[in-house]
Design a protein that fits this description.
The protein is α/β, with parallel strands linked by helices. It has eleven helices and 14 strands. It has helices at residues 35-45, 62-71, 97-102, 121-133, 149-162, 175-185, 251-258, 260-275, 293-300, 309-326, 334-342, and strands at residues 21-26, 52-56, 75-80, 94-95, 107-111, 114-118, 141-145, 167-171, 190-194, 208-211, 221-223, 226-228, 281-284, 305-306. The protein has a six-stranded mixed sheet, with helices on both faces. Strands 9-8-7-10-13-14 form a six-stranded parallel sheet, sandwiched between helices. Strands 11-12 form a two-stranded antiparallel ribbon. β13, α9 and β14 form a beta-alpha-beta unit. α1 (35-45) packs across α10 (309-326), α1 packs across α11 (334-342) and α10 (309-326) packs across α11. Keywords: Amino-acid biosynthesis, Aromatic amino acid biosynthesis, Oxidoreductase. Residues 31-108 form the Shikimate dehydrogenase substrate binding N-terminal domain. It comes from Desulfatibacillum aliphaticivorans.
Amino acid sequence: MTQVTDLIENKGLDLYATEMYAAILGESPSKGAKSPSLWNAAFDGLNISGFMHPMDVVPEKLEQAAAALKADKRYMGGAVTMPYKITLIPFLDRLEPEAEAIGAVNCIYRDGDDLVGTNTDGAGAIHCLKADYGEDLAGKTVLLIGTGGAGYAVAAYVAAAIGAGGSLYLANRSPEPAEKLAAKLSVQCKTKSVPFPLEAGSFGDVDFVINCSSLGFESSKRDRRGAYSHLHFTPLGPVDDSLRVPLGEKVQARFLEAAREAVSANFAASASRLAGMGKAYVMDIIYQPRETLMLWLAKSLGLRTQNGVAMNLEQAVIAFDKATAAAGLREADAAPVRELMEKVW
């Protein structure tokens, strides 16, 4: 069996430093994912010999990496991040009912020889939204942008919270996922798939805007055509996804220079959309940066906002609780985990 460390792009991880280990799997979690610091604070505070490692995995090695982790009994589970919340599912042994219904996972835990997928994104998001908003969500109108793994989970919980009297608009750069999700959630609330970019003059009636897309995320990305960035865009305006710059130093600055016109158009359209949304509450599940361009614009217009910090913390608490309890390391109890993780934010 190929070793786990042979299948990941970031080298130098010592998986034998602790009795057990967890991992966050994604395209590039080593470049700033928060989960390792949260989980490791909980491991230390609870005196558990465990450690969470970031594991950068390319798509063509994902299946092998999952198999290698399953074979290593010291691997207890962990987190799943972009872009594998859906594509990892075929390589797991089973899913919890909520994850099965959502069709995406953000957490894995070991149950004997099996790797079980679950989803804590939606529960974390709705917990934080309700706590900060302070009012019942039933009957509200929500615009949710981005229907990938996290967006799917958040939309499912939002639909249940707003209920039959509520309305849920779903927008996605590729329309088919939004259309399928709208059809699936229509049994819980009124749903509609809407075009991306958003139409001018629409959504003046929304109570909430929730971004679950990667637009606004600060880390640079790359593909075979070069490097690109979503930091300078919001999900409320048009985005030119064709823009690329050569890999190398100062990618963000070079991309911004190349994308100046596209960024300007996005900014103007985004400000116009937000200005037409009355007193909408604006939430962005991105936590890196803590204030995305969309949140900065919304705050500038006097709208209430919430970033992804609280949601990311809460989903990590739930996931750590599941993984360590399933491994027989402790009795499930979210309170001390939350207290320890809050200290490292």
